[in-house]
Amino acid sequence: MLEIYAGKNALKTIQEQGFKQELFTNFLGASGGPKWFTLFGLDKYLFGDFFKNRTTELNLIGSSAGAFRAACLTQNNPVQAIEGLAHNYAHTVYSKKPSAEEIANTAVDIV
Question: How far apart are the C-alpha atoms of 71 and 49, rounded to whole Å?
Answer without folding.
Answer: 17
